[in-house]
Amino acid sequence: MNAARIARITGLALAVLVVGAAAAQALPNIVILATGGTIAGAQPKEGDPGYKSGSLAIESLIAAAPGMDKMAKITGEQIASIGSQDMNDAVWLKLARRANELLATPGVDGIVVTHGTDTLEETAYFLNLVIKSDKPVVLVGSMRPATSTSPDGPLNLYNAVAVAADPAAKGLGVLVVSNDDLFAAREIQKTNTTDLQTFISPNRGQLGEAYYGKAWYFWKPTTVHTTASEFSLDGLEALPRVDIVYAHENADGAMVEAAVAAGAKGIVLAGVGDGNATAPMVDALAAAAAKGVVVVRSTRVGSGIVRRNIEVNDDKLGFVAALELNPQKARVLLRLALTRASDPRMIQDYFDRY
């Protein structure tokens, strides 16, 4: 073999090494922020249906989903280790602030948050309103604990990392991956206690699909979120108290009066039908509104739109209509809205746009 041919082969080999190194360097940097939940749950013994949420650390979750290192450079941080039934304001503020810190760093391309499914939709919507970046933020959980016979968490996490690493997910707001489906934070709702297919988007449909590391997107959110949001965590140490009261047959005003006595700055009605309630409950809500408590009418039905002035005279009573937001999502938006306004007309504008 002559010297010229050897030089050509050596040059080609070096080029391959350089391209390979560049490809490795080009992998996006994804940070996984862990909060606990069933995805990190462990059973007392094999086959036991009971389990303790948040038992496993983030390192265990990453190790259980091999192949993610081919999609992204992954690091993990433990924000909390709780079941999401115990999610609270302190964790929300810590999580949101850390996510914003990381997203503001040029070296971070996206965030994945592991979370229990019970309140995942509330955390996702909260982050959708306070994240100040258009980089992908993806929440993920599971319906089976990590130690179960057939856990769904590893593939869910794998797909969540794929979405967070996907440039096409940029600017879509906070997303949720579950059971091969992809959802917008505002639209997602848990609908079953134990089924893997628990999450749906009843009003607008799922945003896309995430299947074995590949994502497809069907539509883009049109409501205000993330970088366009007016809400900020700057100087915010606590969120206003907002309670949800549940309408039912023969309901009186006791729950409303208890919420006011407890110091609620806002009340969300989980109303029957189109955000309605018994006359005594509506009277109690009107009395609360007259005292300066902001009252938002939502529905316990699970889908549909609660519009203004259909069966209840919102203009006369000073109420706000939740439109598409279910009670738990309406509570999230109302808490943040109350950090900026107390006039029901201004708060209605937030519900119209967010």
Short description:
This protein is α/β, with parallel strands linked by helices and 354 residues long. The chain has helices at residues 3-25, 58-63, 89-103, 120-130, 153-164, 254-261, 279-290, 314-317, 327-337, 344-353, and strands spanning 29-36, 73-82, 110-114, 137-140, 174-178, 181-184, 189-190, 199-200, 208-211, 214-217, 242-246, 266-271, 294-299, 320-321.
Index terms:
14 strands, 354 residues, 32% helix, 10 helices, eight-stranded mixed beta sheet, Rossmann fold, four-stranded parallel beta sheet, 19% strand, alpha/beta
Description:
The protein has 354 residues and is of the alpha/beta class. The protein folds into two domains: 27-228, Rossmann fold, CATH 3.40.50.1170; 242-353, 3-Layer(aba) Sandwich (Rossmann fold). The chain is 32% helix and 19% strand. It contains ten helices and 14 strands. The strands form three sheets. The protein has an eight-stranded mixed β-sheet. Strands 11-12-13-14 form a four-stranded parallel β-sheet, with helices on both faces. A hairpin with a 2-residue loop joins strand 9 (208-211) and strand 10. Helix 4 (120-130) runs parallel beside helix 9 and helix 6 (254-261) packs parallel to helix 7 (279-290). The chain is globular and about 60 Å long. The model is unreliable at 9-24 (pLDDT under 50).
